[in-house]
């Protein structure tokens, strides 16, 4: 059970990191225009 919780937390952290990086790229594009 604990191992599953850690896997889920790692997945959420990875998704959040990817989402944040994508958001930063979009913000840079908007600032350039």
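-> sequence recovered:
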């Amino acid at each position: 059970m604990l191992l599953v919780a850690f896997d889920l937390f790692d997945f959420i952290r990875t998704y959040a990191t990817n989402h944040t990086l994508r958001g930063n790229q979009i913000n840079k594009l908007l600032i350039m225009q």
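The mean pLDDT is 84.
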